[in-house]
Design brief:
Shape of chain A: globular
Order of helices and strands of chain A: HHHHEEEHHHHEHHH
CATH architecture of the largest domain in chain B: 3-Layer(aba) Sandwich
Largest sheet of chain A: 2 strands, antiparallel
Strand content of chain B: 15-25%
Number of domains of chain B: 2
CATH topology of the largest domain in chain B: Rossmann fold
Distance between the termini of chain B: 37 Å
Structural class of chain B: alpha/beta
CATH class of the largest domain in chain B: Alpha Beta
Number of strands of chain A: 4
Order of helices and strands of chain B: EEEHEEHEHHHHEHEHEEHH
Helix content of chain A: over 70%
Largest interface: A-C, 49 and 42 residues
Chains: A mainly alpha, B alpha/beta, C mainly alpha
Strand content of chain A: under 5%
Helix content of chain B: 25-40%
Largest sheet of chain B: 6 strands, mixed
Radius of gyration of chain A: 19 Å
Oligomer: heterotrimer
Number of strands of chain B: 10
Number of helices of chain B: 10
CATH class of chain A: Mainly Alpha
Chain lengths: 297, 256, 367
């Protein structure tokens, strides 16, 4: 393998990893605060890319209007889902919340089938993202660096929100102790809703970038990225945003490299992600960044 | 020969040393109290004895067997039972069911005979139920046998937790703040109850308690700890007047 | 006396039910029979999930994987050598499997045993994990099994799947085994072992301090459940006669979770009723996905509509009926007579008879 080919794979791995990371953030924020595995999150990814698609195809919006609009609208959908399907169940056994997430996931997927149709649709890359660049001898299509850059900008923004704003501080406090934070006068409902909106918006961004990288969209497209991103979130230590980033990049790069170096194992790619996950869980049950909390007796 | 022996037991959580070089011995039939201010490591010592935590250093011997770092269920089957500071009853089981869980470790029939209700299982189940009812009767809880465990009043729940622990037929019983949340009348009754089971079940009891009235009233020997270290040990009068104990408790207010 | 009465009643109901099965197998059309079989298979799925989650408190999402093990085992063992040769046209089947052909029962049992073995091997390390981490790990194991099956071309025929599996499953097999599953589960959870399982569910620390061996009991529930899931998988393969790895995506597991929650955690009656309702309901909704006409207007079928309606209903049940249909309650004759006499009293002895017990729940008798 030549060095330039290696860098091509690496760039590919990083761009895939940044997509996983974008989606993983939503999982990790929701889990950190509500201890809910939001299995509908992958379908939010699908929704984001469809809204962006229809913005361009049906409403003839330029992509630089349609894409941000899709991110915004998906954020709103995230709020609606949280308010109707999750909020009423906060005080009941967790399996109900989980089942509710499963039901929402089923609902979104099948609504997608009904409304958008089962046939895959071709997603048009904006021309600026479809030119071939030569970086140090390696040929790279421009969407790869654009995906990585966009993801990095979004991470930067997220870090700013989480660490430098009041609502971010409230989010961090909530994930430590939701009740006490409430007693301190923080409107916990609003903060939770905000986290859902933020997570869904990032998932939509991930979905649009996903569609740019793999330009075919269909109603079940969110399932696999969703699961992988979830694995990434657990790898990094679910509940920890930095962990989700690390987990996402690690998983993306590892997957691409596995296929690049051992092409005969390509068929096991999906099992590979789970195998890493299970090995990690068995040796470090709370992930890379997760805190080990002994149960208080 | 001592029944329970702790030799230089130490437990660290990260940088915090919760128990530091703690040693003691309990003779069979003894009733001994462990006192100390909040966060002084009392419950941690119980958790080390029962195997919930593994000591960082030191050795724990029970009845001649080294139980250091053994699993809680193994330690329980050797004859150590306990109650918890915050009551931990099984809320999906009734009062009788809670006690029967304590009998389960002696069940010899395998799961298949249990599913098939084979004669050997049926006999064991019948015996277990009989014994459990007798135990409940001895603690005058038998009229509540089919109530939900968590629907009982607080004092009864504490008693049930003790009953459940007794069902394992322990030789050593660890009671973690049995009088917590009780009024003077109730703790008076509890004292009599503890003395009663000590005799009736041929036990050795190690108890953590904050209410000095209870401790001073019934325990011939008291161990006082602070910051995970023994600061005093002896009969109630000696502890009461020990300057280090007074100092450790100053400002806590319970020892007024 | 009461016990004797209940025993007799149970016996009578079982005989009536057996008669009903014989009648249906002889007279009902294949479509109805298929639905009845599916009802039984989903009953097994739900009851076994309930054993692991509802009674033992272990959130395991490995059902689809265990069902796949049972299904493929039974399928490969019952197919004729000729069918296998027809199926494996990309690469030949491994020689050991090429010429075997077993009767249904041993094939199905081996499917269950292999699923149990896999369950044991997975459960042993995974059951140390708590709560959600266990869910993730078991979901992962389930998916790994599926991916392995996609890639084991010479054993499973990969993504092409298996076609022409003999259709051995009938209502005797399916409902017979569903009853066995319910019986075994009920007997287990009502025994001393069952109390230990519930103790683990309610408070692991306290259970262990009372001498309950955590991993032994968790693995017991998990392995037993995997065995029956494997059996259900075998029944499924020999019912639908065509299987491929996609049948065993984690969607299957999600459906089982949904069914069980709808029926009520820790209620086998609930699981049974809910599984039957789900299966029948999904079939009843089939028309919305096929084209139909309202007067002169032709409405094309909308694929996916059934699941939209189902998931919306599931959501409503979870939101407004949180304990599920049955909560923790079980059907028993004493309960039945209590209810009917109360009903009769309320009707003022107008001579109206109370509704008969639903067929799905008759087997739950309290000893």
């Amino acid at each position: 393998m030549t060095l330039s080919l290696f860098f091509q794979h690496l760039a590919n791995g990083i761009s895939l990893g940044s997509l996983y990371a974008l989606i993983a953030i939503g999982y990790t924020m929701v889990y950190g605060i509500l201890r809910l595995i939001n299995f509908a999150h992958g379908d939010i990814v699908m929704l984001g890319s469809y809204i962006a698609f229809y913005g361009v195809v049906m409403f003839f919006l330029p992509w630089w209007v349609s894409f941000p609009l899709a991110i915004l609208l998906t954020g709103v959908v995230g709020i609606i889902i949280e308010r109707t399907a999750y909020k009423p169940l906060r005080e009941v056994p967790r399996i109900n919340l989980f089942t509710s997430a499963v039901a929402v996931s089923f609902l979104l997927e099948n609504l997608g089938l009904v409304i958008f149709g089962a046939r895959p649709k071709g997603f048009h890359r904006p021309p600026v993202m479809d030119t071939v660049l030569y970086i140090g001898g390696a040929a790279v299509v421009s969407y790869t660096p654009i995906i990585i850059l966009t993801a990095l900008v979004l991470f930067g923004g997220l870090m700013f929100v989480v660490h430098r704003t009041k609502v971010g501080m409230a989010m961090r406090a909530l994930s430590k102790d939701i009740e006490t934070t409430g007693l301190m006068g923080v409107n916990t409902d609003q903060v939770i809703t905000f986290s859902f909106a933020l997570g869904s918006a990032l998932a939509a961004a991930g979905g649009i970038l996903w569609a740019i990288k793999f330009p075919q969209i269909q109603p079940l497209m969110g399932v696999m990225p969703g699961l992988k991103a979830f694995i990434a979130a657990v790898l990094g230590g679910i509940g920890d945003i930095t962990g989700a980033l690390i987990g996402g990049f690690l998983l993306g790069i590892a997957e691409i490299m596995l296929v690049a170096f051992m092409p005969n194992l390509a068929g096991y790619r999906d099992a590979f992600a789970y195998s890493i996950l299970i090995l990690l869980l068995l040796f470090r049950p709370t992930g890379i960044m997760g805190e080990m909390e002994p149960e208080k007796v | 020969m001592s029944l329970l022996r702790l030799d230089g037991v130490t437990k660290c959580f990260g940088g915090l040393t919760a128990v530091n070089n703690f040693s003691t011995e309990l003779a069979p039939g003894e009733l001994c109290a462990l006192i100390g201010p909040n966060g002084s490591g009392k419950t941690t010592i119980f958790n080390l004895i029962t195997g919930i935590y593994t000591p960082t250093a030191g050795r724990i011997t029970f009845n001649g067997t080294d139980i250091t770092g053994k699993r809680p269920d193994i330690i329980a089957s050797l004859g150590v039972a306990r109650t918890f500071q915050n009551i931990r009853l099984f809320n999906g089981l009734d009062v009788l069911g809670n006690v029967l869980v304590g009998h389960h470790l002696r069940l010899r029939s395998d799961p298949f005979s249990a599913i098939l209700r084979a004669p050997n299982y049926a006999r064991e189940e019948k015996e277990m139920r009989q014994e459990a009812m007798e135990l409940l009767g001895a603690l005058s809880l038998d009229h509540l046998a089919h109530e939900d465990a968590t629907s009982l009043p607080y004092g009864q729940q504490r008693k049930l937790e003790i009953a459940r622990a007794l069902a394992t037929r322990p030789r050593l019983l660890l009671l973690d703040e049995p009088a917590a949340g009780m009024n003077p009348g109730e703790s008076e009754e509890l004292m009599r109850f503890i003395l009663h089971i000590l005799d009736a079940f041929d036990l050795t009891i190690f108890l953590i308690e904050h209410q000095m009235r209870v401790v001073m009233g019934i325990c011939p020997r008291i161990i006082a700890i602070d910051h995970g270290e023994t600061i005093a040990e002896g009969p109630p009068e000696a502890i009461q007047n020990n300057p280090r104990v007074i100092e450790a408790y100053l400002g806590v207010g319970e020892y007024a | 006396m009461k016990i004797t009465r209940n025993r007799i009643l149970t016996l009578i109901t079982l005989v009536v039910f057996a008669g009903f099965l014989a009648y249906s197998q002889a007279t009902f059309n294949p479509y109805i029979l298929r639905i009845m079989n599916l009802c039984a298979i989903f009953t097994i799925f739900a009851v076994t999930f309930n054993l692991v989650y509802g009674y033992t408190g272990q959130f395991s999402l490995g059902h689809a994987g265990f069902a796949a093990v049972g299904a493929y085992t039974a399928a490969l063992l019952t197919m004729t050598p000729v069918q296998k040769e027809l199926n494996f046209f990309l690469e030949p089947i491994v020689p050991v499997l090429a010429n075997v052909q077993w009767p249904f029962l041993p094939a199905m049992l081996l499917g269950g045993v292999l699923a149990a073995v896999v369950g044991f091997l997975i459960g042993w390390p995974a059951l140390r994990l708590r709560g959600d981490y266990l869910a993730i790990a078991t979901l992962g194991f389930g998916e790994i099994i599926r991916v392995l099956f996609v890639n084991m071309q010479r054993v499973t025929n990969g993504s092409l799947g298996l076609k022409g599996i003999p259709e051995y499953t009938n209502v005797y097999w399916s409902w017979g085994l569903a009853l066995v599953t319910i019986f075994v589960t009920k007997r287990l959870v009502d025994s001393s072992y069952g109390r230990a399982l519930k103790a683990i569910r309610d408070d692991e620390v306290a259970a262990e301090a009372l001498g309950v061996k955590l991993s032994y009991h968790k693995i017991l529930a998990f392995t037993l459940s995997s065995f029956f899931v494997g059996i259900a998988g075998a029944l499924l393969a020999n019912l639908i006669s065509t299987i491929d790895p996609k049948v065993f995506l984690f969607f299957l597991t999600y459906q089982v979770v949904g069914i069980t929650v709808m029926g009520g955690m820790s209620s086998l009656t609930g699981s049974t009723v809910s599984a039957c309702l789900y299966t029948v309901f999904l079939e009843a909704l089939r028309p919305v996905e096929s084209p139909f006409s309202i007067g002169p207007l032709r409405v094309p079928g909308v694929p996916g509509m059934r699941m939209v309606i189902f998931s919306a209903l599931l959501l409503l049940v979870i939101l407004f009926y949180r304990r599920g249909l049955f909560g923790q309650a079980e059907f028993s004759w004493d309960w039945f007579f209590e209810k009917t006499s109360a009903l009769r009293a309320r009707l003022g002895r107008t001579g109206k008879t109370a509704p008969a017990p639903s067929i799905e729940s008759e087997e739950e008798e309290r000893p």
